[in-house]
Amino acid sequence: MWAIRLFLNGKMFPQGNIPEKKWRQFVLQIVECITQRDIMLDLLCIDAEAFFQIVSILFYKGKVFNFINRGKEKQTKQILAQRQLLENPLISEEVYEEGMTQLSHNQILERFDEVCQSREENGYQVPDNIRLQYLFFVANVASKSNIRKDPKFLFSCMIELVNQSQKFLKFNRSLLQRAMAKSKDNGGKVVDEKKYLFVTENALIELMDLCEPLDDSEVDLLVEKTEYTRFNHLRVKLLEKKEDYVQCCQLYVDGLQMSEYCSSRDSVLRVFRWIENIMDLLAARKCVANPESTYREDSFRKAILHNFKGLVSVNAKLTFDLIDDKFENEHEKFILSIEDFPNEQFKYLETMLNARHQIIQNCIEEYLMSGAEKDRAKAYMRLQNKHLRLLCQLQPKKVLDHVRRIKKNQIHFPLDECLEICQEYKQVEAAAILTNKMTNYFSSVTEYVSLLTNKEMFDFPRLIKQISFIQGKGLRIP
Question: How does pLDDT run across 292-335, given as a tens digit for each residue?
Fold first, then answer.
């Protein structure tokens, strides 16, 4: 098999290149030889994986592939010429093609089918490993060569591959590992699990595209077969055909959270764009006279609410943009839905208050001065209150800077509510700043004194060291 690979690539042993004319003859002879049933079986029994790696040379875009294709084009011209001579348009290309000496890609695959797909013939049963290696070859190589195959055959291949998904994953991991081993800068790395999962799933998706059009029963069968696999993206595509967008959304979010895919910014953006497109689609279909269309849209909106925590953990900014655009004035509803997840709540609130800072402050200021937009302003104030509480819990060192912004009126916040929160979470210096702002100077001084006398809050050794350092430099303490 090593010699076959060498000759197909146009190389001589031990060195040099085969002349072009001779190489063409070798290719034709090798293809004819290795596709004979008995020879094929012998080679497959020796090493089925190595055999199909060699056969892949015929199907990958390159010199050998183009040579076989040119031979096919030449045959087609001969067929047309014979048709004109015979003046019989009823004679098909297949009839003439059978009589040609050079095999086309389709004829090569048909010979493989006869051997690798036959369960039992003349008392001989093709081993499962040979049949599986052929299916791996069809999925990874033959389906990508734009060679027409019967969709029903490809569908049966796909079902078998899904049934044997663990073996297919293991096979692709092995291929990627060998490719990495050949790399000079590999450094003994192990192939990333996400990468071979992506390669395997992508091969199945491309195979499914070649099976189109799929009828409802075929889609249902594939949905059933993929239920307990890790092919979330494939399941999404199948469920989209059934218009089960709620389940699609769940799978997309679960997939991103588990990092089943290369969760780059591009893949995250694709998921959020998909959600926006589905919402637009369902909104366009919505009709008052058709309760089913209204139900579908409402169900999908509920699915977004249900997956809100997952979306925030993936990308808070994109989640905020989605809610702001598609769920007008419902931020508070979404935030309260994840009350048991303070980290995600804080992440979303921080994103929202930063992104819409000026709009929010203008709204609150207008309400405080004229009473306008009361409901909206009150909702913003409740969210600011929630944000400060979470800031005290999760990032207490940042509370002081936040309170200083409130003192400078950069953030419109009821001072009595802010003071209550700071005192509840023992933010003594912040409380002192607020009482000073409220002109309650006695309380402010009391807070500062408690700060100085509380050993837990004040680092005396550090103060003494700083004073000594300043005096040693001959500097003045302000």
Answer: 778 888 999 999 999 999 999 999 999 999 999 999 889 999 99
The CA distances from residue 301 to 255, 274, 307, 308, 340, in Å, are 19, 14, 10, 11, 21
Listed residue (133, 150, 10, 6) closest to 66, CA to CA: 10
CB of 200 closer than 8 Å to CB of 233: no
Domain that holds residue 37: 1-149
Contact between 334 and 323 under an 8 Å Cβ cutoff? The reply is yes
Of the residues 110, 125, 149, which one is the last residue of a structural domain? 149
Domain count, the chain: 2
Angle at 191 between CA 188 and CA 194, to 5 degrees: 155
Any idea of the CA torsion for 11, 12, 14, 15, to the nearest 10 degrees?
-60
Angle 47-141-50 from CA coordinates, rounded to 5°: 15
**pTM score, two decimals?**
0.71
Q: Mutual orientation of helices 193-210 and 128-140 as an angle, nearest 10°?
A: 80
Interacting residues of 312 by C-beta distance below 8 A, sequence separation 6+: 319, 338, 344, 347, 348
3-class DSSP state of 339: coil
Q: pLDDT at residue 166 above 50?
A: yes
pLDDT digits (tens, 9 = 90+) for 415-428: 889 989 998 998 88
| Residue whose token pair is 């099976």 | 211
**Which of 149, 176, 204 finishes a domain?**
149
CA atoms of 263 and 320, how far apart (whole Å): 19
